[in-house]
């Protein structure tokens, strides 16, 4: 029997309450073309080599899913799941995504993406996947700009049990501190630190992508 080629899943975290932009929800905010932030983020991810793409929902799940489905340029439609205990913190949302990715035997790693980072491009995602598949013995891959690491972060399957065991609202930050020296690095631009989680940043996002 032919063994399936290893692949990398993308897990998009989209379960948060967006309290810093309340009453607006950042993932529903439109860019200059009217495309919601979550859909803009997914456009680059679904165009990449990542497969499957898993979107983890929680707060206002139905609205976020509807907004994420507005883009007609998606060639690789994502899978939507809901983290039942998302209110317990980012770690539980991440665990739901890792659990879903684990059901695919060919998945050798998972790229953890944040729903509010729409400037991350397909090229960076593909370069991170290529770097990981070339060095599958590493814990994962991080993007770096001017000596600083950012998001997304790619974790190898060997790290899945540790990711599932995380608690609280810090996500995988403790694991990053522990394993960063052993992770592969991929050069990136300032977009790896650019999120949109304040009213001023949402106003900036509303002016972006005017050319489509």
| Tally of DSSP helical segments | 7
The level of helicity is 25-40%
CATH architecture: Alpha-Beta Complex
The largest β sheet comes out as: 8 strands, mixed
Q: Tell me the distance between the termini.
A: 45 Å
Rg, Å, rounded: 16 Å
Number of domains: 1
Unreliable segments (pLDDT under 50, ≥5 consecutive)? none
What is the CATH C level class, in words?
A: Alpha Beta
Q: H/E order of the elements?
A: EHEHEHEHEEEHHEH
What integer is the average pLDDT?
93
Strand proportion: 15-25%
CATH topology: Spore Coat Polysaccharide Biosynthesis Protein SpsA, Chain A
The coarse silhouette is: globular
Q: Output the structural class.
A: alpha/beta
Number of strands: 8
Give the full name of the CATH homologous superfamily: Spore Coat Polysaccharide Biosynthesis Protein SpsA, Chain A
């Amino acid at each position: 029997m032919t063994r399936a080629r290893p692949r990398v899943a993308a897990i998009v975290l989209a379960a948060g309450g967006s309290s810093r932009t309340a009453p607006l929800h950042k993932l529903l905010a439109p860019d200059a073309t009217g495309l919601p932030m979550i859909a803009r983020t997914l456009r680059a991810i679904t165009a990449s080599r990542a497969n499957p793409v898993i979107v983890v929902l929680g707060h206002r799940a139905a609205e976020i899913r509807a907004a994420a489905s507005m883009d007609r340029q998606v060639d690789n439609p994502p899978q939507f799941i809901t983290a039942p205990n998302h209110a317990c913190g980012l770690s539980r949302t991440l665990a739901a995504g890792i659990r879903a990715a684990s059901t695919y035997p060919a998945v050798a790693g998972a790229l953890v993406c944040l729903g509010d980072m729409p400037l991350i491009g397909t090229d960076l995602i593909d370069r991170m996947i290529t770097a990981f598949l070339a060095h599958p013995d590493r814990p994962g891959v991080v993007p770096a700009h001017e000596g600083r690491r950012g998001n997304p972060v790619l974790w190898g399957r060997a790290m899945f049990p540790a990711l599932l065991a995380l608690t609280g609202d810090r996500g995988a930050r403790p694991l990053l501190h522990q394993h960063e020296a052993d992770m592969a690095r991929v050069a990136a631009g300032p977009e790896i630190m650019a999120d949109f989680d304040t009213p001023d940043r949402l106003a900036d996002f509303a002016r972006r992508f005017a050319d489509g």
